[in-house]
Design goal:
Number of strands: 6
Strand order of the largest sheet: 2-1-3-4-5-6
Structural class: alpha/beta
Helix content: 25-40%
Order of helices and strands: EHEHEHEEHHHHEHH
Largest sheet: 6 strands, parallel
CATH class of the largest domain: Alpha Beta
Distance between the termini: 17 Å
Shape: globular
Radius of gyration: 21 Å
CATH topology of the largest domain: Rossmann fold
CATH superfamily of the largest domain: Alpha/Beta hydrolase fold, catalytic domain
Length: about 375
């Protein structure tokens, strides 16, 4: 923490797969680079447990749930301990913590900067939600080709929208963080982000898994996409919850059992009432089949069982509007397109990424090359 004269506070949260030592590195770099860019704000580096699991890339969904569990603690710290202006910043999955703290627990901050946000874009901007079931939707698992969108777990909530008292209507990423005010939001993304990049088709089984051992230069490419598509698949880095798995005869946990709906035709012919009570996807956990689902379970279901139908916020511009619905200028910044007067430490011909702004280049690339982004943050955050 740095003492300041301005009375302003910067609160920063790191992302996924960052242990305690790496968190100190992130916090130190963010503080130094903001200070070198003219920030006079008091800096608070928040360490949260986003690295659970021996090989934590196999436990990504658990860490998403942990982000939800951390949100109330962040709200308490910011609300009870800080006075003056509050500017919160987060990288990658850290944005799940911050967005939940604001949307679910009423954390009040003056400005919120999202960096490479590993959060479905539909959570803030419903126009990014892709419900296409023609087989061209990269967010759909290949095994669901031919199944009508209304049979998907990601669209199951639509069956309950006419009943505002049915908690199953809340089982969607669509507009999940719409309560985060546009007035405070700044989306600092990268169209060159490799971790959050979408593959043209659903990722394969081992996509992103190489990142566990740093074996290949493309190890973490499409990793976020793979985590969404393998919800319910009960495979490497997948889950056993709902998702893109199919309901099967007992024992349900044995994935090789016979499908209850024998193929897309049978599923597509089912009427809404049947799909509501007997979904095509895995009925796990059973608590999701009731109309009263505790908030903690709803969050865990989003983390483990309800796939996104949009790409990650950290790769695209999202709608940030004023009260009249007009876009607020300067609220979306593509780091991949920011001017780099001193070049870039990777050659344009260096495969596979060349001069793309990758997921963690905010920290991993020397300040000499990326200082323009920090200057912009300090200016927009009014941190001087």
């Amino acid at each position: 923490m740095a003492v300041n004269a301005s009375g302003k506070n910067v609160i920063f949260l790191h992302g996924f797969k960052v242990d305690e030592q790496e968190a100190r590195a992130w916090n130190a770099e963010m503080f130094k680079r903001l200070w070198q860019s003219g920030s006079d704000a008091r800096f608070h580096g928040v360490t949260w447990k986003g690295d659970i699991g021996l090989a934590n890339a196999l436990h990504y969904h658990e860490n998403v749930n942990n982000a939800f569990l951390t949100a109330s603690c962040l709200r308490d710290y910011v609300t009870n301990n800080l006075s003056g202006e509050k500017i919160v910043m987060a990288h990658s999955l850290g944005n799940m913590v911050v967005s939940s703290a604001i949307a679910d627990y009423g954390m009040s901050v003056d400005k919120y900067f999202m960096f490479n946000a590993a959060v479905p874009a539909e959570a803030y901007d419903e126009s990014s939600w892709h419900s296409d079931d023609s087989g061209l939707n990269p967010m759909m698992h290949n095994d669901w080709s031919g199944y009508a969108g209304r049979t998907w777990s990601a669209r199951w909530h639509e069956l309950f929208l006419n009943n505002p008292n049915d908690d199953r209507a809340l089982l969607t990423w669509k507009n999940r963080f719409s309560a985060v005010p546009s007035s405070i939001l700044y989306n600092v993304y990268s169209s060159g982000d490799e971790v959050l990049e979408l593959n043209n088709a659903a990722p394969a089984l081992l996509t992103g898994a190489g990142g566990l051992f740093n074996l290949f230069p493309t190890a973490e490419r499409y990793a976020w996409h793979k985590q969404e598509v393998f919800k319910g698949r009960d495979m490497v880095a997948g889950t056993t919850w709902a998702g893109w798995g199919f309901l099967r005869t007992a024992p349900e946990s044995t994935y090789a059992q016979t499908l209850v709906y024998p193929g897309a035709a049978a599923a597509n012919q089912a009427d809404p009432a049947q799909l509501a009570s007997q979904p095509v996807f895995r009925w796990n956990p059973p608590g999701m089949l009731t109309n009263s689902i505790p908030p903690a379970l709803r969050k865990e279901l989003l983390a483990k069982g309800i796939p996104a139908l949009s790409g990650a916020t950290g790769t695209m511009s999202v709608s940030i509007t004023d009260d009249s619905g007009n876009a607020i200028p300067g609220r979306n910044q593509d780091m991949n397109s920011v001017a780099r007067p001193n070049g870039w430490p990777r050659l344009p011909t260096e495969a596979p990424y060349g001069q793309r702004w990758k997921h963690s280049d905010l920290k991993d690339v020397a300040f000499f090359y990326n200082y323009n982004v920090y200057s912009d943050i300090v200016a927009k955050g009014d941190l001087e």
